[in-house]
Each structure stands twice: as C-alpha cells, then as structure tokens.
Specification:
The chain is mainly alpha-helical and 142 residues long. It is 56% helix and 8% strand. The chain contains six helices and four strands; from the N terminus they run αββααααββα. The strands form two sheets. The chain has a two-stranded antiparallel ribbon. The longest helix is centred in the C-terminal third of the chain and has 32 residues. It is globular and about 45 Å long.
Length: 142
Amino acid sequence: MRKECKLSRFTDEEMEILKANPFTSKIDRRHVWFTLEFQNLFLSRHEAGETATDIFTDLGYDISILGPNRVYGFSRRLYDRLGSGRELVEVRGNALVQKPANVDYNTMPSQNAVSSMQRELTYLRQQVEFLKKITALDKGQK
C-alpha cells in the first residue's frame, strides 16, 4: 500500500503569487494545475537535460512556495500520463480543456482565434507524438 504524501496548504499570499504566474491554470489550498503550454515547455526542457527545479524556477515559480514534493510529483505524474498513452490536459475552473472543436477562425475575434489556434496546435502536436510512440512500439514488436 502506497503511503500518501501530505502536502502543506498554501497561504492567501502564496496563492496570489502562484496565480500571478501565467503558467498557472488553477489553484486551490493544496494543489496547483499548470497550463498545457507549461507542461509542453517542461517536457521539452526536461528532455534536453534540465532539472525539474531549474525549469520551475526559470518559468517563474518559487520553489520554496511549491516545495520539492510538488515539483517532483508534477514531473512523475506528467511522465506517468505520457507513458500510459494518455493526453496532457489542462484544468481551468472546474472543467478540463477538451479537444478543440472544428471552428471557423475567420468568424472569431483575432485574439480568440489566435488562442484557439494555439490550443489546437498543442493538441495536434500531442496527437502526433502519441502516434510516433505507438508506431515505434509497433515496430519494436515485429
């Protein structure tokens, strides 16, 4: 049986500091959720050899607020999710950001269109990476 790690609670001041970071998608007293952009940046930089602590610090997070358990737990969960073939997700409010719908970007305000295109691009990149992994696994079994 796995022992659950008890995370400390954030103070109001710490929550405000974490909310101010553009890579924070959602926060409550015990948890921080990160944007898809952060998750993708983390993966690319971690695979390039940077440490999790350095990545968090470079992207504007105070490690003394998050604590090492959250930093390394985030890294472990991210790789577990990818290893099991699940897509990266972003939590906003109480809802997960879902697969982008087919939309006509010409009818949207430009800022919304750019934002939607960025989400769709991120989603499609994740799909391509997933397909590459499946293909590599399939070739390895033959």
